[in-house]
Amino acid sequence: MSYQSINAGCSAEMMCGYGASKLRFRGPQRELDRPFVACLGGEETFGRFVDSPFPMILERRLDRRCLNLGSLFCGVEALTQDAGLLEIANRAEICVLQIPGLLGQSNRYYRVHPRRNDRFVAPTADLVALYPEEDFTDIHFVRHLLTRLWARSDARIEVVEQELRREWIAKISRFLRQLAPRVVVLNLEVEDCALESFPHERVSINPPMIDAIRPHCAACLDLRVQVCCESDEIEDMLFGTLQQPIAEHMIGPATHRKIAETVAHTINDLCV
What we know:
By secondary structure, the chain is of the alpha/beta class. The chain is built from 13 helices and nine strands. The protein has helices spanning about 5-10, 45, 55-60, 75-80, 85-90, 125-130, 140-150, 155-180, 200-205, 205-215, 230, 245, 255-270, and strands at about 15, 25, 35-40, 65-70, 95-100, 110, 120-125, 180-190, 220-225. The strands form three sheets. The protein has a five-stranded parallel beta sheet, sandwiched between helices. A two-stranded antiparallel ribbon has the order 1-2. Strand 6 (about 110) and strand 7 form a beta hairpin. Helix 3 crosses helix 13 (about 255-270). The longest helix is centred in the middle third of the chain and has 23 residues, at about 155-180. The radius of gyration is 18 Å and the shape is globular.
């Protein structure tokens, strides 16, 4: 079913904006003057290369309007620093928040792009002092940066990891406290064997981090899912000829249905 469509390539025709938010979301644009459930998150919430991402399926399961406020390349920084997104979320009846990973946030050691949080902008003086032998000029992505630092195989990387976890807890907790609706936190652990060389266990969201933010939300869901090349859903994805290498690392339609079912049960149990 591999074919080019506006839902596959994330073209300008399918993107939309809301209010004062600087982020771009999956279209078509929906009205904000009627009750809605706000689904915030990154590329899994956005639903790249699938026709019906889980917010759309959730809308049918709940029989309630669900706004897809997932944004590509959205990490901690974009999620927590966009005042327009916060304003929209606070107009919702309930929020479903796919929590971002550790890497996409500016911190004591490096800066990321404010909206494309996968982009490494610059090291700070603290990182240069910690790694004086490292040349950062050819590094453009955060994952590349951390892979380079892990390759040094010494204790310095633990200092960086501790900073990332501390900042993550502080920023996510503050964001949750600013949300007026009840929040269902969705922690998606996405398995991708093609990225085995990347030490995911060192940057995963661990139970103590979830416990730290738990007092600020109505429910926390942990779901382990696989990308479509692992779950044999690649034939059900929508992508153009040159997009398969990217599409293989996204979650597929059956996985989106599984997520929607789990979230729907939780919201119904909350009686919100």
